[in-house]
Design goal:
This protein has 306 residues and is of the alpha+beta class. It has helices spanning 7-35, 52-68, 99-104, 178-192, 211-220, 233-245, 264-267, 286-298, and strands spanning 41-42, 49-50, 73-76, 90-97, 110-117, 120-128, 133-138, 143-145, 149-150, 167-169, 204-206, 225-229, 249-251, 271-275. A hairpin with a 6-residue loop joins strand 1 (41-42) and strand 2 (49-50).
Length: 306
């Protein structure tokens, strides 16, 4: 889809906006802890939480976007009403990704601001205000950490021959039904388990509870793969742009084509597997290796519904 969106200007706007939102998040955290406020509430269940700070930050971001880009659409976590992603320029925002972490004072928290056109992320900014880590990208312009370090941080992509060599991020998720938990834990066991018992014995599994930061860690090369079930477009829109500009690959769920195409269907699909930039192997392009790893991963996992 053709668009007259200036990605350079939109990226600069999103970076400034994320930094301002970060100030609000830090101030909100300090105020909550000083007053021992307990203003969080629940969404889908008792572990799916939202705070007044989430709502205030989203309202601030929405207002700034509408002042600057009045013709652009907006989808935010705290005001989402079930609408589909339009073709028009659409800002897709998670004001505080990692709300549970925020409530507990665990610093893996981020503001995620993405811009999609035709369902394809073209600008992405993810900012962790507690660790002062700013990940940013615009289509065709590369991905960066704190504005200067180009991603991946390793420079050239490193090899990744098999799952056995991988550091993989997984998540326990918000759905806590017995069937879902059993499927997740069984999959974790297959990934981490000993090969003589049918496991892949990956280097290790990690979980930090912030999808947007996980995507950025894959983009940076610090994580090899990241598996998510149950996320929403605002969790991944910004990170998808950052990942793509860093040479990473994004795939849908277990029973999809694993073609690596990022579009509105993938963005809204709620099942994701992200793979970092990978060096070519003998007879394989980097993407062919990424796709082979995705198939190997899904051969190991159960298909879990969000």
């Amino acid at each position: 889809m053709r668009t007259n969106v200036d990605v350079h200007d939109c990226l600069g706007f999103a970076i400034k906006l994320a930094l301002e939102a970060g100030e609000m998040i830090r101030a909100g955290q300090a105020k909550r802890f000083a007053s021992q406020a307990t203003t969080e509430s629940t969404k889908s269940n008792s572990v799916d939480l939202v705070t007044e700070v989430d709502k205030a930050v989203e309202a601030f971001i929405y207002r700034r976007i509408k002042e600057t880009f009045p013709d652009h659409a907006f989808i935010g976590e705290e005001t989402y009403a079930g609408q589909s992603i339009p073709d028009a320029p659409t800002w897709i925002v998670d004001p505080i990704d990692g709300t549970t972490n925020f409530i507990h004072g665990y610093p893996m928290v981020a503001t995620s601001i993405g811009l999609a056109v035709g369902g394809i992320p073209i600008v992405g900014v993810v900012y962790n205000p507690f660790l002062d880590l700013l990940y940013s990208a615009a289509k065709g312009q590369g991905a960066y950490l704190n504005g200067t370090a180009r991603l991946p941080i390793t420079g050239k992509p490193r090899p990744l021959a098999t799952l056995h060599d991988a550091l993989i991020h997984v998540d326990i998720g918000a759905s806590r039904t017995t069937n879902v938990l059993h499927s997740r834990l069984k999959t974790f066991g297959r990934l981490a388990g000993s090969p003589d018992q049918g496991g892949k014995m990956v280097h290790s599994l990690r979980s930090i509870g912030c999808a947007s930061l996980n995507l950025c860690l894959v983009a940076s090369g610090g994580q090899d793969m990241h598996w998510e079930i149950g996320c929403w477009p605002w969790d991944v829109c910004a990170g998808l742009c950052i990942l793509a500009e860093a040479g990473g690959a994004a795939f849908g769920g277990k029973n999809t084509s694993l073609c690596g195409t990022v579009n509105a269907e993938l963005l809204a699909g709620r099942k994701y597997l992200f793979v970092r930039a990978v060096a070519p192997e003998k007879g394989e392009t980097g993407f062919a290796v990424q796709r082979r790893l995705a198939h190997e991963f899904y051969d190991t996992t159960d298909d879990i519904e969000p």
